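New to this. Please check this record:
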Amino acid sequence: MSAGIEISLAIILLSVLFSLSSSRLMTLIKLMALQGALVSLLPVLLNSANKLPPGGIALFLIMLLIKAILIPALLYFALTRMAIRREVEPLIGYHASVVVGLGLILLATYLSRYLQYSAPGVLALMPITAITALGGGLFLMMSRTKALTQVIGYLMLDNGIYLMGTALIKRTHSHYLVELGVLLDLLVAVMIMGIILNNINRAFDDVDTLDLEQLKD
C-alpha cells in the first residue's frame, strides 16, 4: 500500500507545479478537484493496516464530497458567471512560477529533515509535499490578480495544512476533528468568495483584484 501513498503524493506534488504553470482557470479547478480527492484518500491508505472506525469512514466521505466535488462545483459555477477564462497578466510570469515551484520543492526537502514524523509508516515524501503545497498556495495568492485564482491558492494552502497535520500529529485519528473544522471554515470561505466574485464581476466586468484600487471613499 506504500506504493499507492507514494504515487498519490507524487501526483499532488505534480499538481502544485502544474497549477503554477497554468493560465487556464478551468484547468486549475480540475487540478484542485484531483488534489482534493487524493488528499482525502491519504488517511485511508495510511490506515489500511488498521480498520478505520465508522466515524473515520464518515469523515473521509465528507472530506471527499467537499474537497473533490462540492468546492470544485462552486468554483465552476463562479467561472461560468464570469467572462474571463484565463489569467493573462499574472504579477509573476508562468516560467518564473515554475522555477519558484522547483525551489519550493528543494526548500521543502531541506526543511523536512528537521521534522519529527508521527510514525515510521509516514513516508518522507509526505512533509515535502505538504510544505510545497503550503508554499505553492501562498505563492498563487500573492502572484495572481484574478480573485478566482487566489481562491484556488487558498484551497491549495488548506491541502498543505492537512498534509502537514497528517504527517506530524501522533494520534492517528485526532487530525480528523481538526480537519472537519477546517473544512467547514473552508466551505464558508469559498461561498463568501463566490459572492465577492459575483459582485466584482458585475461592478467591473472583470475579476481582477487590481481593479479594487479604483474604489474611492
